[in-house]
Amino acid sequence: MTARQTSSHFPRAITGMAAEQPPARIVIFIGAPGSGKGTQSSLLSSRYDIPCISTGMILRDEAKKNTPVGFRLRQTMASGALVDDQTVCDAVVSRIRDSYEQGKASLILDGFPRTVSQAKRLNDELKALGIPGPLVIHLDVPDHVLLQRLARRRQCATCGAVYNLASKTSKNGARCQFDGGALVERDDDSEGVVARRLTSYRRETLPVIEYFRKNDSANGIYRRIDGNLEATAIASEVCDLMRFADTAMAA
Ligand code: AMP
Q1: Ligand 1 centre and the CA of 37: distance in Å?
Q2: Has residue 50 got a pLDDT over 80?
Q3: How far, in Å, CA of 161 to CA of 183, rounded?
Q4: What is the structure's pLDDT at 171?
Q5: What stretches of the chain adopt beta strand conformation (E)?
Q6: Ligand 1 near 211 CB (within 6 A)
Q7: Which of 107, 115, 168, 211 has the fewest CB atoms within 10 Å, counting from its CB?
Q8: Is 203 designated active site?
Q9: Strand ordering across the sheet containing 162-164
Q10: Contact at 8 Å (CB) between 195 and 80?
Q11: pLDDT at 233 (0 to 100)
């Protein structure tokens, strides 16, 4: 896989937010499919000018390739299962190292880690690089809201920007506001696959949340946010958390 970091879909001109001094840390957004990890990662990335690594985007790009790895990823992702830890960890760790070598210790992780084994590998890597424990933001959303959001979610076929059919910008065959790309449903947002993704989330990822919750303060900071609030209200809570984490690190 190539070492590429995903960029924000919310240019600062659109979010109306000025870039702030980036604090040196790893911010992890964790939550079920449809909890708003991608949206919040993009908003935070724009606000603080921190690169974002989205494992879903990296894997979708890789899955498009006509290679044995691409074929295997297509099959796994279409089934709603998680991709194996080794493949995902190698992709993320190489990007963290690249970023660190370029002098950028701050990163946003969208969709990683999703298993306890991935969380432990990340922990080892951060320790080895001397990067402080992560700020883990858990976006907690009730199941019925997740199902509604995923049924209405559309994505730009070109740049991957996410839209909701209920919003004004994506009604009546609208196209992507950034590049005019067609808005399409993700293959894995169909009803049957969503059910399997939620099962994977409960089985594999809820224990990761518990892992971070238990290690709060010993190894980073864990906070739960009500992910059922408006995106702007959540973004504001996230910014408060960034400031809180700065103070906690300085203390
Ligand atoms: P997402 O875009 O984050 O919803 O991810 C889409 C799909 O990519 C998931 O359903 C998984 O199949 C795969 N995936 C993304 N991140 C991970 C991860 N950290 N570990 C394993 N599989 C992942």
Answers
A1: 12
A2: yes
A3: 9
A4: 64
A5: 26-31, 52-54, 107-110, 135-140, 153-156, 162-164, 183-184, 221-226
A6: no
A7: 168
A8: no
A9: 162-164, 153-156, 183-184
A10: yes
A11: 97
